[in-house]
Amino acid sequence: MKFISIVMGSKSDFEIMEEAAKILEKFSVAYEMIISSAHRSPERTHNYIKTAEQKGAKVFIAAAGMAAHLAGVVASFTTKPVIGVPMRGGAMDGMDAMLSTVQMPAGMPVATVAIGKAGAINSAYLAMQILAIEDEELRIKLLEDRILKAKKVASDSLEIEKII
Amino acid sequence: MKFISIVMGSKSDFEIMEEAAKILEKFSVAYEMIISSAHRSPERTHNYIKTAEQKGAKVFIAAAGMAAHLAGVVASFTTKPVIGVPMRGGAMDGMDAMLSTVQMPAGMPVATVAIGKAGAINSAYLAMQILAIEDEELRIKLLEDRILKAKKVASDSLEIEKII
Amino acid sequence: MKFISIVMGSKSDFEIMEEAAKILEKFSVAYEMIISSAHRSPERTHNYIKTAEQKGAKVFIAAAGMAAHLAGVVASFTTKPVIGVPMRGGAMDGMDAMLSTVQMPAGMPVATVAIGKAGAINSAYLAMQILAIEDEELRIKLLEDRILKAKKVASDSLEIEKII
Amino acid sequence: MKFISIVMGSKSDFEIMEEAAKILEKFSVAYEMIISSAHRSPERTHNYIKTAEQKGAKVFIAAAGMAAHLAGVVASFTTKPVIGVPMRGGAMDGMDAMLSTVQMPAGMPVATVAIGKAGAINSAYLAMQILAIEDEELRIKLLEDRILKAKKVASDSLEIEKII
Amino acid sequence: MKFISIVMGSKSDFEIMEEAAKILEKFSVAYEMIISSAHRSPERTHNYIKTAEQKGAKVFIAAAGMAAHLAGVVASFTTKPVIGVPMRGGAMDGMDAMLSTVQMPAGMPVATVAIGKAGAINSAYLAMQILAIEDEELRIKLLEDRILKAKKVASDSLEIEKII
Amino acid sequence: MKFISIVMGSKSDFEIMEEAAKILEKFSVAYEMIISSAHRSPERTHNYIKTAEQKGAKVFIAAAGMAAHLAGVVASFTTKPVIGVPMRGGAMDGMDAMLSTVQMPAGMPVATVAIGKAGAINSAYLAMQILAIEDEELRIKLLEDRILKAKKVASDSLEIEKII
Amino acid sequence: MKFISIVMGSKSDFEIMEEAAKILEKFSVAYEMIISSAHRSPERTHNYIKTAEQKGAKVFIAAAGMAAHLAGVVASFTTKPVIGVPMRGGAMDGMDAMLSTVQMPAGMPVATVAIGKAGAINSAYLAMQILAIEDEELRIKLLEDRILKAKKVASDSLEIEKII
Amino acid sequence: MKFISIVMGSKSDFEIMEEAAKILEKFSVAYEMIISSAHRSPERTHNYIKTAEQKGAKVFIAAAGMAAHLAGVVASFTTKPVIGVPMRGGAMDGMDAMLSTVQMPAGMPVATVAIGKAGAINSAYLAMQILAIEDEELRIKLLEDRILKAKKVASDSLEIEKII
Q: Considering the entire predicted model, what is its pTM?
């Protein structure tokens, strides 16, 4: 079994991270999703990451706000790729969470995506791009999605465009 | 053939991005490395990405400074994972490059790592973590590297530590 | 045929960029307006810019938010002046879009204006100032507009001013 | 006579703004260059802008640091396009000058370019792109420059590139 | 006749700057208040400052937002003290206006106060502190105000305080 | 008598700082709470700190916004630990208050916690952690609270979690 | 006796604040200058401000870095105008000191000038502008200085200017 | 045995954190000092914190740079007070480390001090202030240190002061 694991630091992150789950479901990619805090439940986080990796988690997505340590802590427990999603809400509108997520020391990367909802969606896409390296079916789906996105741009444009 | 492709926007990025190459060589991971600019050589960039993907590039690393569009432009040409390394040197000591790299719109992720040298090193590690999902030998090497890193912490500590 | 081309990266930018269109209409300056994304529709963007330039586009206005690459990408396809309008909505209230737009590398300028609505309006004025270099009628209109603006300041002041 | 006018707020800006002058000379584009401060010599600035415009200045380049008001003040005296170059040196490494230059109110644009040397060079390119709209010879030169830039990327790359 | 002159760059600043006027009225200090823009009405601004100074303006208060050049421009026309009030509303919640106001070059000071409403109120207090150097009656009023403020702190505290 | 002293600079801080008081009450830790301003009531602040310390205040919590000097001023009157809580509301969403609180000179520390409500709650926890060094009963309560927090994470997770 | 009082928080501020002293000496304006810290010597600061005001201090200049509370603390002891000079050296190159100085609460202004050396010089000019309201001789000197500054701009320009 | 525990994330932090150790030695306060990384040696960190607490660590000082998770991770393993020292060196000159340290979620405080050397020194002072609550001898020493600091201000001042 191969799946993507989504961990979020707090219940308040669910509304945003649900967007990642929706994308994975749309592409029929298996995933787990739990809440576990780097600070309030460090042992739960440690145990979950170890168990999930053994069960088949291939990529971890970790979402947290403020001093967002979750992705870094997850990265310290696994050598699987860890994607960090900085949440809005702290000082500087999520810049605290972004800097806490992206500025990892040499040798311990966190693949950081955009702040908030765009980042949640991108964490799912990035996880699928990683799986798609060895999953031809998923690769085709991602290519089709790109074509749809380009078509959507053109159809959106038709609603407002003005060509001489 | 599977390899990692490193693209940098300018010759001035080489000194930093060489660190990524060194890591890949240390782990015997195949890679290509070229300079191509999002703005000064858009066609070269487009052609290279398409060719590299056909030849077997599984992950792209893109490094640029200032209004760092390279990683985003690379991401627009491929559905392979793209890792962005923001370079120092512009406004706010690399914050311009970081925001230009990480704040990608929904559906078009760039896996962003730290600014500058730590980010260059982490781009190599992240790329290897992605390949290691399906490469048991590389996975073992990464685990061994973690053990060495932990030992290095302990031996570094011995030089300065003071225990009662 | 001479005209100004307005390109925006997303449908959500229309509400703001419509302000630029209104200004151009008020001054009877021809323009085109379309949606095309640097990332989701790179070929559409490339094709549109090339076609528009051949048809007579003299100035390009490109509006985008977050990691706002659109103006830079447009600039890589043309040597016509490109005006960049950073949109609000991302990190630090549009600072991500501004830095992504203005910090272009040497030799590849983007003429950046203010974030959001003021910038949208200014993109239209700047484009007209450029055309007015060789368009005496438009130059006169811009001078008259300046006089009106100065008069508006005086009449606004009358509503609140208190002179001893 | 058509020319570009370069105004800088202080002698300390010369070392950077000389880069703009060099570019214009390389392309054989006529220019004037003077020092005039928005604050220390407001009348000189006013008089110069009026005179220069009458003599044939088609585009103004204004460079200043810290609370960089010069470009905005120049813009208040002319409807010709005004390009602002934010200088480094104040708080936040030039971000003060950038925000003071780019955040102009609706109807009074300043075409802002990157902070410091890259911005100085880009101010010259942007000014030439504006003149090139009606100057076919200059347009060809700019296209040739683009081709040289793309070739330079490729030759730079040869020094470091590694292709499998 | 001695008075304080309040100049604001736009009608939208009135709601905030009215707070300064109210404070001056409360302390029976004469003032003028007008709208004049650094960019849209540069001559009006120049003429007003010259006239006001001749009529007896002892201190100028200048309020503006975004690339807030008004206080600096006023300072270039007078050697009277100029107080700058940065308005909210631009990028970074008024930080653009603050940096544009405070970072004046050597020899051309603007006395900058806090962003927005607190700054509007403080501009009035600072202007009165300046006048009070030579106005014993006003000095006494300011001292009495301080005592009232300290008493207000104590009475506010009574509503919520909890002393063991 | 041992207690914690909460001082806030303004009545507007009460709504947030009440959160600290609630935490202390929940843990049955004695506290005082008053309003006193560093600037509007410097003598009241000085007198209160001296008196409170004599009565048994073991830790001071000081909350203020904008140029938040209160914690630093309290620290200058006592060698007891001083915890600073930066309030939102000023420039950059509380970054002004945070920098004004945390960047104390060598030898004069303020123990700074997060901006706003999270910081208010954390100021109470930190104060209790300090008292718990010598208060076994309180130490046990804090440990029990940690266990409850970890359980809460698990029960929150149950509402949304999806395990394969 | 009328004089300006310069207070700095640390010996390390002297090199910069000496610039203010030099300006005052050049204009033959009496001043005092001492070191006193808001935090390390609060009583000294309190006593000095009270004594200096009684002796004839008309304007206070207070310089400090990091969490720069000195100007605010001085302002809490006097109703004379207080000019704050933020020093470089802390976070974000002096932005911590600037925000700590300028963001004063309503009713307690600090007249803030630029960060570092330009601010030191401007603190002296601003103090003189305040005294010059009632000192015709000093007013003339300041006007002459302005004329010299404008001439200096013109002579500086001659060294580099290029006029067609 | 009572002691203070200093943990730093990397050997490169030693030069700065040695300043904390020097202060503790000067005041004859027992301490331990080791290197342990939140990310590279998570188990070592966990084991050390648990062991140190059992041996008598009363306060933890944790120093780290960039995405500085160490203090937060230490706080997740203990209910003893944890003091965080943000190191310089990352993006925004230490602001990344500060935000990663201070913006802890509700219920999990880290007592954050200034960035870099001043913070290192302050971490030692804050730890001693905490111990001094129950250590009369240490309290006296801290009071004496305050007196010395105030005297040092006065003697520093003598070298530069100018009193009328």
A: 0.97
